[in-house]
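Check my protein:
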Amino acid sequence: MTLIEIIALALIQGVTEFLPISSSGHLILPSVLLGWHNQGLAFDVAVHLGSLLAVMIYFREDIVKMLIAWFGSLGGKNTDDSRLAWWVIVATIPAVIAGFLGKALVENYGRSALVIATTTIVFGLLLWYADYRAKQNKNIYQLSWKSAIFVGLMQAVALIPGTSRSGITMTAGLMVGLDRESAARFSFLLSIPTILGAGLLLSLDLIESQLPVDWQAMIYGVLLSFVSAYLCISLFLSWISRIGMLPFVIYRLILGAVLFIFVFV
C-alpha cells in the first residue's frame, strides 16, 4: 500500500470501529471508488490492535474495577461492577459461536457491495426505530442477564458485513431500555473481548500464511487507528445524549445509497 492508502484506511478503521455506521461499509469504498487493493492480514492486525488499545485505555478505570469485582464475585461477593463484568462475558458468547460457525460462509458470500449496501440501510433504519421508540430509562448497571444475552445475540448478527457491531449492539441496548450513553458504553465494553478475539484469529492466520510484513505500514496502522478511535469514543460519549442516533442513521442511508449506485450503475 502507498502511504496515502495506509493513512486513509487506518483512520477509516479507527473512526468507524466504534461509530454505528459500519466499518466494512467504509472499507469497501476505497476499492470500489479508487480501485485500491485489499489491505492485507498484517494491516488488519495492526488496526485491530490500535482500536483495542484505544478502548482499553479509555475505559481503563472501569476495566480495573470490573476485573477486581469479577474475581470477588467468584468468592460470592456480588456488586454492580461484578454483574456488569459477567454481562460482558455472557454477551460475548453468541458472537464467539457465530464467528466459528459462520466465518467461512460470510467470507464466501457476505463481502459483496450489494450485501453491505443492503445491511447498511436495513440496520440503519432499525437503529432509528430503536432510538425513536426506546424508553431509555435504565443505566448500564440496571442491565439484566436476559438483556445482556439479547445484546449478545444481536452482536452475533454483526458477523454480516455492513451491519456494524457498534450499531447493532447500541440498537439492542436501546431496545432493552438503556439510555443512549449506557447503550454506547456497554457496546464499547463489549467490543474489548470481541476485538481481542478477532485480532488473535487474524494474528494466527498471519503466522500461518507466512506472508512478508510491512512493518512501516503496521506502525502507522496501530498509531493512527489508536488516535482516531480514542478521539471517536470520547467525542461520541460526550455528544450522543444530545444529538441522538438520527445523524448516524441519515449517514448510513446515504452510504448505502452510494454503494447501491456503484452496484447497479
